[in-house]
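To assess whether ligand presence alters the predicted conformation, the chain was also submitted together with adenosine-3',5'-cyclic-monophosphate. Input:
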Amino acid sequence: MPVERTLSIIKPDAVAKNVIGDIIRRFEENGLSVIATNMTHLSAVEAGRFYEVHAERPFYGDLCEFMSSGPVLAMVLEGKNAITLNRQLMGATNPQEAESGTIRADHADSIDANAVHGSDSAENAAIEIAFFFSGLDLHSH
Ligand code: CMP
């Protein structure tokens, strides 16, 4: 299995619930290492740039509003099969469909307030990591 890097965002709902530690514990216990962190509060315009790929979707406006409603924790996770593994740990986008024991099953309230974001491909991981971090910010260990 290749060692990969992926972008994870702990969204405003999960930051507000004080479950940052629980989410990072799940990553670490499953072999993923946090190699960069950035707590930030996105503006609606910045959230819109990050989610530009969804610009034509009906939920885009609500998504940008939600993602700029409070601080988020952006992180780079590194490990074997990191992109797929992170998505398995997150669970389905809609928490009602998320397998029990996943982050979204345990912490998400709705498809908008769904606790975490994770890159869905190697190509998007590279783009999304570059949105929040420069190469100098990444600390493999
Ligand atoms: P995320 O993985 O961050 O990627 C885009 C986000 O849009 C998604 O999580 C959801 O929070 C949000 N969203 C809202 N409605 C939908 C929908 N119908 N399909 C996919 N994503 C949605």
